[in-house]
Amino acid sequence: MRKILFRGKAVGSGEWVYGYLIGRAENSGRPCQGKYFIDNGEPFNTAVEVIPETIGQYTGIIDTAGEMLFEGDIILVPGPDGEDIEPVFVKYDQKRALFAAFTQDGKWKFDMDRFPEYVLFSSIYDQEESA
User: Fold this and answer.
1) Which CB contacts under 8 angstroms, 24+ apart, belong to 99-106?
2) What's the per-residue H, E or C state across the chain?
3) What's the burial of 38, exposed, middle or buried (CB within 10 Å: 0-12/13-18/19+)?
4) Angstrom distance (rounded) from CA 121 to CA 124
5) Which of 17, 18, 90, 128 is least surrounded by Cβ atoms within 10 Å, i.e. has the fewest?
6) Burial class of residue 7 (count of CB atoms within 10 Å of its CB; 0-12, 13-18, 19+)
């Protein structure tokens, strides 16, 4: 069974935070609409508000360098000849109910659990910031 873990960029600092995805209630008891928080589960820790568009779930897959792969990551995949490298995007595929790799134009490439070697390149959210 894979570990359920999320990450997102903190509001304000833009730093990645990792942990449990939670919602908080205001003092009135009403939910904070549109706000998401990540809590790392440490005692006395304060949950960090994150930018909703940057939230991604851990896929349960680790790349060849030991890095955890998250939804929203860009990975590099060796071609059939072992030389060509193609960047693909990790996202959850609702039709298949699993994480899959997609080309830049949104076409399905392969299911993440079917390909043995990945190299984490970046996150789509880091790419947007550098553009």
Assistant:
1) 99/59, 99/60, 99/61, 99/71, 101/75, 101/77
2) CCCCCEEEEECCCCCEEEEEEECCECCCCCECCCCEEEECCCCCCCCEEECHHHCEEEEEEECCCCCEEECCEEEEEECCCCCCEEEEEEEEECCCCEEEEECCCCCEEEEHHHCCCCEEEEEHHHHHHHC
3) buried
4) 10
5) 128
6) buried
- Which whole number is the average pLDDT over 50-55? 90
Task: Tell me the C-alpha to C-alpha distance, in Å, between residue 81 and each of 65, 78, 117, 120, 121.
Answer: 21, 8, 14, 20, 20
Length of the chain: 131
Give the global pTM: 0.79
